[in-house]
Specification:
Blueprint (H helix, E strand, L loop, with lengths): L8 H12 L3 H14 L4 E7 L5 E6 L6 H6 L27 H7 L2 E7 L6 E7 L2 E8 L4 E7 L6 H4 L5 H18 L4 E6 L2 E6 L5 H9 L1 H4 L2 E9 L2 E8 L4 E2 L5 E5 L2 E2 L3 H11 L8 E2 L1 E6 L5 E2 L10 E2 L2 H27 L8 E3 L14 H4 L36 E4 L17 E7 L3 E6 L2 E6 H20 L3 E11 L2 H9 L1 H6 L3 E4 L4 E8 L7 H14 L11 H11 L9 H12 L14 E5 H7 L5
Parallel strand pairs: 1-7, 12-15
Antiparallel strand pairs: 1-2, 2-6, 3-4, 3-6, 4-5, 7-8, 9-10, 10-15, 11-14, 12-13, 16-17, 18-19, 19-20, 20-21, 21-22, 22-26, 23-25, 24-25
Length: 614
């Protein structure tokens, strides 16, 4: 007797539905994508009890005649593709022809549709995959799909659904994804017969982000200037340096308008931010990647959440370059915001004179046995320090509370030109011997002297090593190790890169290598384990990354030990130089560990704290 049997059509439909329809949010996703492919300009999503009781999606798209409406409920019936060759260049969101029949097989399903100009439309009622009624309908042009009692006939799947609140949040997340991907389409979300969100048609992604998250959130983002990189166009918005989250909840990535999850793109984002992001934090991103549809395969996941790229390295390079360029573009605004003093153009008036102090200790680089990471400030022994705030209970000073006033141009001004108001600031003092307090046109600025000095030393040390080479030391006993064939092939192709990192490596037989030199500034106990980690990490970095990427953690730890600490008193010229050198860095916003170097407290925030504004 044969043990292999052909499954009944009903069971086969439910099995297929299990791959496409995971939860109510999956239904919303598939129906909205169909509406977008139909050319809709307005889409309304209505849900009850988290979509478990009812989901309704209404659009004003092209609609269907009766024959197409009936065919749309047949498995693998679609208007998106016609041959196997079309799978290599999919430009629509849907293409398999599985969504509607899968949804209809696990719910009580109603479809009404009418083409523009048609006298009457079509209404189809389906119960658990069986068509029960086909009749004329009088709805407006477009398509309406109503899904009731989801998984009523699949109790094993229904019991795995979460609470109504959780399912509602999942639907709202899907709503946000589709709304962000299509700002030219108006969206509305009706929850339990109440309008929860209504988004008008907008001209740009900027307006859609503002409508969803508010203008204050938008101010924390930087727009990516569109630029094509080897056929890959990257656009969207990124969080400023220091703007991050503990999860990827606000990390949105779209490929050709499709929201996806991709480890390749997530790694590229992380690399683009690099030291501008704290460890364990994730950037806020609204990233859109557009490329030829033939260079991306979307037919690799039942729910189409994952894609495969023909040339992943090219995509990674494009994203890394776009993120770096965007963060650097915000540097000018950041410098203007904090209004640094220009060299030679500063006049300081000290409100009170502190007792003479001894000359400052040798600079950080001198303590490290090298030249200073920044030119040392020449100070005489009798030069005064910055005034410290009066101690509680101390005697009153006639100059108490006065600030150090500094007038300067942001850039070298033309002769006779007067400096602008936003190009002036006042150094007020030092709080807790750590935070430099300054006032600019926007309010109060706090500078973490340790974090700022860390960034200066980090970039200077890394730059010197890149220019002069990584100091290396020869091992007493060279080590020989073997690698798998793929890793061995990669090492053979990247020997030059490894040698530039201070690693002396050469072939030693089939899939074996000999290492006799390692970077001097790294503490390496096991050379073989170190090389394996080097290979794994370099595989995920872009070709334009610094060859010192793997040593940057050690560089950051080194400069952290030698940077100015809390309770280290700094005099005015040192403070001035610290700020000027910080603003000359490639990424002045944060220290090598991703912590901010400066924060701004606006006048509006201060007025709210003191109850002057609501």
């Amino acid at each position: 007797m044969s043990r292999i049997k052909l499954l009944p059509e009903t069971v086969a439909s439910q099995v297929a539905a299990g791959e496409v329809v995971e939860r109510p949010a999956s239904v919303v996703k598939e129906l909205v994508e169909n509406s977008i492919d139909a050319g809709a300009s307005s889409i309304e999503i209505g849900i009850q009890r988290g979509g478990i009781s009812r989901i309704r999606v209404v659009d004003d798209g092209c609609g269907m005649d009766r024959d197409d409406a009936l065919l749309s409920l047949e498995r693998h019936a679609t208007s998106k593709i016609a041959s196997a060759a079309d799978l290599a260049a999919i430009s629509t969101l849907g293409f398999r022809g599985e969504a509607l029949p899968s949804i209809a097989s696990v719910s009580r399903f109603r479809l009404t549709t009418r083409e523009p100009g048609a006298v009457a439309g079509t209404e189809i009622l389906v119960n658990g995959g069986r068509i029960e009624t086909v009749r004329d309908g009088g709805e407006a042009p477009g398509t309406q799909v109503e899904v009731r009692s989801l998984f009523y006939n699949v109790p094993a799947r229904r019991k795995f659904l979460r609470s109504e609140t959780t399912e509602t949040r999942n639907i709202e997340h899907q709503f946000f994804l589709q709304a962000l991907a299509q700002p030219a389409i108006g969206f509305s979300l009706v929850r339990d017969e109440k309008v929860a969100l209504q988004l008008p048609v907008t001209a740009s992604l900027r307006d859609r982000i503002r409508d969803l998250y508010g203008a204050e959130f938008l101010n924390e983002l930087l727009e990516i200037s569109e630029r094509e990189y080897q056929g890959v166009r990257v656009r969207g918005w990124l969080g400023r340096a220091g703007v991050s989250r503990q999860t990827r909840a606000q990390q949105f990535v779209f490929v050709n308008g499709r929201a996806i999850d991709s480890g390749i793109l997530a790694t590229a984002l992380r690399e683009g931010y690099h030291t501008a992001l704290m460890r364990g934090q994730f950037p806020v991103t609204f990233l859109f990647v557009d490329l030829d549809s033939q260079d991306v395969d979307v037919n690799v996941h039942p729910a189409k959440r994952e894609v495969r790229f023909r040339d992943p390295g090219r995509i990674r390079e494009a994203i890394v370059e776009a993120v770096r360029r965007t963060l650097e573009s915000g540097r000018v605004d950041w410098q203007r915001k904090f209004s640094p003093p220009a060299p030679g153009g500063t006049t300081a008036v000290l409100s009170q004179i502190s007792p003479p102090v001894q000359p400052s200790a040798p600079s950080s680089f001198e303590r490290m046995g090298r030249d200073s990471a920044r030119p040392s400030t020449s100070l005489s022994p009798d030069q005064p320090t910055l005034p410290q705030p009066p101690m509680a209970g101390g005697g009153d000073s006639p100059n108490r509370g006065r600030a150090i006033e500094v007038n300067h141009p942001y850039l070298t001004p033309e002769p006779g030109a007067a400096p602008k108001d936003d190009q002036q600031f006042q150094i007020i003092g030092v709080l807790n011997r750590l935070y430099v307090l300054m006032e600019n046109s926007d309010g109060l600025v706090l500078v973490d002297q340790h974090a700022a000095h860390e960034r200066i030393l980090f970039e200077e040390l890394r730059r010197r090593m890149e220019e002069e080479g990584v100091p290396s030391q020869r091992m007493l006993l060279p080590q020989i190790f073997s690698l798998p064939p793929r890793d061995a092939e990669w090492v053979e192709r990247n020997v030059a890169t490894l040698q530039k990192m201070g690693i002396g490596i050469e072939g030693f037989g089939a899939h074996s290598f000999r290492v006799d030199t390692l970077p001097a500034f790294l503490e390496i106990a096991d050379a073989t384990d170190f090389l394996r980690r080097v290979i794994d990490e370099l595989k995920t970095t872009s070709r334009s990354s610094s060859p010192l990427r793997l040593g940057e953690d050690m560089i950051a730890k080194t400069v952290c030990r030698h940077a100015v600490k809390a309770n280290d008193p700094l005099r005015y010229p040192e403070i001035e130089k610290l700020i000027r050198d910080l603003l000359a860095c490639d990424l002045p916003y944060c220290c090598p560990h991703g912590r901010p170097t400066m924060i701004q407290i606006s006048h509006a925030e201060l007025e709210k704290k003191f109850g002057r504004k609501v």
